[in-house]
Amino acid sequence: MEGAVRVQILSQMGISEVPSQYIQPPNNRPGSVTENIADLSCKHVPAVDLSSEKESVLPAIREACRDWGAFHVINHGVPTKLLDDLRRACLSFFNDFPMEDKLKYACNPNFAASEGYGSRLLVSSENETVLDWRDYFDHHTLPLSRRNPSAWPHFPPQYRELMANYSDEMKALAQRLLALMSESLGLKASCIEDAVGEFYQNITASYYPPCPRPDLTLGLQSHSDIGAITLLIQENVGGLQVLKDGEWLLVDPLPNAILVLVADQTEIITNGQYKTCVHRAVTNASKARLSIATFHDPAKTVRISPVSDLVSKSSPPLYSSVLYRDYLSSWYSNVPEGKRNLDKLLLDTSK
């Protein structure tokens, strides 16, 4: 059982100041996130309508992946009722049940990415100076050999069934999106998925309780996702920020949309043509926030490198190949700040 104090408990205590281990260094602090919020609001993260003709979908995806590394998808085919029911079930887990019951599903603190209910992301987090203002539940969902619904909450009713159904829907959508991303680069539809291989999918429900000092804390520190593609849903309380042209922009929740985040392995596979999205989560003083992120990663034994069709004498490889196990180990043994794990693989193309 993980020994960390749950952030939700700290919030419910009514503290006026946050403990020192949650205070970000000055250069990482979000500042007053309630001030000039309209100026920081990112209402124009691209939205791609997947029901449109492919002739309009492909260039929209190409532009979004090159310029943003993120885009909403609408008319994506995932039932709205499933999205709503899963959000309600996850919120109910965090809000409606005694802590002693939730702690029965606590993460193992000795293993990175341990399945279950946690607050500390990294094994080494005992030695970190700063912690995220967040509790979460991480589910190992794919391949099916990893899926063990008995490790997921048995409350509220239908939680396990909803999570399993959502996992299957997200897999199908991720495959569809990677195919469109491949085609938008002039590659065969299966190209990126073939490079990734069988999906290792995790679903993380993150709960960000109200925080008395949102100007000093982060719900989730700056990072890019390590896998191939992340699919995220929010509720009506925003807090996700993306880094665009050196500025942090708040991504407004778009009703019934799913946010797509390009992740590190896809940047490598596309030889830098598609950019991973650096993002973070901010907190607020009055409202709790929920997000549900679905990560699609390669197996640890897969070696990732730029696809040959995107490499030529005029476009040399930008990244060295990497065994995903090694990339994963590097990410979890370091504070995953920004894109620095990906940047370690950059090759010197000036020679």
UniProtKB/TrEMBL annotation:
A Pfam match: DIOX_N
Superkingdom to which the source organism belongs: Eukaryota
Keywords, alphabetical: Iron, Metal-binding, Oxidoreductase
Database matches in PROSITE patterns: FE2OG_OXY
GO MF annotation, one: oxidoreductase activity
Residue span, Fe2OG dioxygenase domain: 198-298
InterPro entries per the UniProt record, alphabetical: DIOX_N (IPR026992), IPNS-like_FE2OG_OXY (IPR044861), IPNS-like_sf (IPR027443), Oxoglu/Fe-dep_dioxygenase_dom (IPR005123), Plant_2OG-oxidoreductases (IPR050295)
Family per record: Belongs to the iron/ascorbate-dependent oxidoreductase family.
Designated name of the protein: Fe2OG dioxygenase domain-containing protein
Organism this protein belongs to: Gossypium lobatum
Lineage, highest ranks first: Eukaryota, Viridiplantae, Streptophyta, Embryophyta, Tracheophyta
